[in-house]
Amino acid sequence: MDRKRTNGGVATASAESTPRLLQQDEVPDEASLWTMTLQELVRVAELQDTNAILSDTLEKLPEGRPSRSLTAIQEATEKALEEREAIQRTLEGINLLLAMRDADSNNDDSPESKRKKRKIEAEGLVSNSKKMRRYSSAESGGIIPVGQQVAARTPKDKNKLEEWILARVLSYSADKNKYVVEDDEADDYGKKMTYTLSARSVIMIMDDQDSVPEFPAGHTVLALYPSTTCFYKAIVVQPPSKNKDYSTPLYRIKFDDDEGNERTAPPRMVLDYPKLK
Asked: Are residues 103 and 167 in the same domain?
């Protein structure tokens, strides 16, 4: 398999209802709060996909049709405000959950508390906490900071296939919900290519290794191929916590179309595989 530079969303679901912002003195039980927060995460993903489509539509509108342009801009603005409010509710829920957990671990060892914790873990809600912290680690509003390393899905054209590359954020346009990113690898002339991409084509790479969620064996991931700046689809063979062959944490993974060879990759460069359309 040629690893020089080749290869290439988030599935959305309609939230049945959009939970409202909590009132100042209103604190639901932990299980209900988890459910509300997860609903908001689904809503955020749904709105991001909608906003990306609206952004593409705005760019394709013909000139000389001001009424259509105004309508599209108004709709895009409304959806952007909805997304901001959904993110605010998500972060509010996460902060409350963290506060509850801190309080429980510090001073509540009662049988009732233990039963609640077991119930939440049985429902599979705790497993989502690292992913939510990962999402909220971006700057306020969920925007990836300028200078941050990312995995970026470059568009395909007649001369090149779509691929995921290692890049850095140069800027973000809130109006279009798009990033300008710069390829980490220079071309043969020393020039680094830049791309303007929708938010769903850019995945943040965490700086803090402790904030990176660990994926279990058998999980499908997007991982940096050794000695390249390209990401490819792979399957986890062994997560870092189970891999004792190295002094530093490393995944053991198998890339697609790589003749079944096992490779290693650092946790920062192993991302949940995006289910983009």
From this structure: no
Sign of CA dihedral 158, 172, 49, 73: negative
The per-residue pLDDT for range 84-117, each reduced to its tens digit, is 888 878 887 787 777 766 665 555 555 555 554 4
Find the domain containing 256 and state its range.
214-272
Q: Tell me which amino acid residue 211 is.
A: S
40, 78, 201 from 85: Cα distances, Å = 10, 11, 22
Do 132 and 34 share a domain, yes or no?
yes
How far apart are the C-alpha atoms of 188 and 227, rounded to whole Å? 17
The strand pair at 202-204 and 178-183 is best described as unpaired
Task: Enter the DSSP assignment of 269.
Answer: G
Distance CA 134, CA 143 (A): 12
Which segments of the chain does DSSP mark as H helices, in order? 30-60, 66-107, 111-122, 129-136
First to last CA, the chain: 24
Are residues 124 and 60 located together in one domain of the fold?
Answer: yes
pLDDT tens digits, one per residue of 219-250: 999 999 999 999 999 999 999 999 888 888 89
The number of domains in the chain is: 3
Identify whether residues 66 and 109 lie together within a single domain: yes
